[in-house]
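Contributing new records

If you add data, match the layout below exactly. Sequence lines come first and carry their own label; structure lines follow with theirs. Keep one chain per record. Anything else will be rejected by the validation script.
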Amino acid sequence: MKLSESAFGEFMAKQWKAHTKQPQVVQGELQKLQVTGLSEPQLIEVGALACHVHSEHLGEWMDGIAYIEALVASQPSMSDATRLRLCRQRAILLKASNNICELESFDAADRFYIFTLATPAAILRGDPAHGATIYSEALALLPLLADMPRHERLLGVMTANLICDLVERSELLTSQQSILLIIAEKSYAIWQRIGDATDRDKASFRLAQSYMAVRKPAGYGSGRYLRSLNIES
């Protein structure tokens, strides 16, 4: 499937809109996309979506890595900047999957980006304990970065979205419950520092939701009782 510039924009908007509820459909659409005709900025956009879908939504690490590698191979003469952006996406998948991930070729800002985006993928689709370790790596690196406010906002956005994903689940693993509270409290602190009044209110609500999610009894479900079995007609 080869697309014009306008059609590509429409295609990507449609896939981002659909990816939450239909990640496997989006995965299939990306597979059909003719990447050899894409510009370098378009390759970066496709790589970011492919990484996100394969990691956070499907946990299909090796398939995601193969797709990113195919993007890199599609244009052997691509610029170093584009190659770096795609390699960051590949590293996110590797890091989240708990496979060996060599990061010596990345600077501190790129490593922080990799750690930050690998955290939710590992917690949601891989090993939550590994995700907690990655999150600690991101926190340790944050004070060393030159543009700390920009990177702190990235961490704040990532943790906000991760918290929402976790509290919306009907059941959480014990390991997910533990990391949820750690992340929710640290995310709350970030938004108190960098956010406006709306950001701070949302962070407070997410923190309250996190405490409730952790305290929800096993098998609670919706909390309702079947009316037909419990209320006399």
